[in-house]
Design a protein that fits this description.
disordered N terminus; alpha+beta; 38% strand; seven-stranded antiparallel beta sheet; 3 helices
């Protein structure tokens, strides 16, 4: 590794169980107008605190957002989050939905998902790693060993 490269933290485990759900989200363009966005929610036991949202727009590779599983779960029933990701239950016309607000340097978007689909996904993730037991799935000793072992490439 040269001095200009930034070391990447290696994945905690390989071959760990995954929960995934393909969905058709609605991107809210303006009041009364939304467009369909193909997306996938993913949860990997190897990263027990995180969920991933892959959105498939006009690109070869999806745009991927990572945020806390706990944030998604809380956002089903109440407004949560600050910064780049916030989540809240829909009201009025959006009742029965979860609204995911994503922001970044290039703009922001509000994505609407069906509450039933999000809760189904979370239930699958909870069966893999029960909430509050995430720490049992993180190999901190192994991570520290890999970070301190400068002579070996990540595997």
């Amino acid at each position: 590794m040269t001095g200009r490269e930034t070391p990447q933290v290696p994945p905690q485990r390989s071959g760990a169980p995954v929960a995934a759900l393909d969905l058709d989200l609605r991107a809210l363009v303006c009041p009364g107008l939304s467009v369909c966005v193909k997306a996938r929610l993913r949860y990997d036991v190897a990263e027990p605190y995180a969920v991933y949202l892959d959105s498939h727009v006009d690109r070869a590779d999806p745009i991927t957002w990572m945020f806390a599983r706990e944030l998604l779960a809380a956002g089903v029933t109440r407004a949560v989050g600050i910064g780049d990701v916030s989540i809240r239950p829909g009201t009025g016309e959006d009742a029965g939905s979860v609204l995911v607000l994503l922001g970044g340097d290039e703009g922001s978007v509000v994505l609407r998902a069906r509450t039933a689909e999000v809760t189904s996904f979370l239930a699958r993730a909870d069966r893999l790693v029960p909430p509050g037991r995430e720490h049992e799935y993180v190999d901190l000793d192994g991570l520290v060993r890999r970070l301190l072992d400068h002579g070996r490439p990540w595997s």
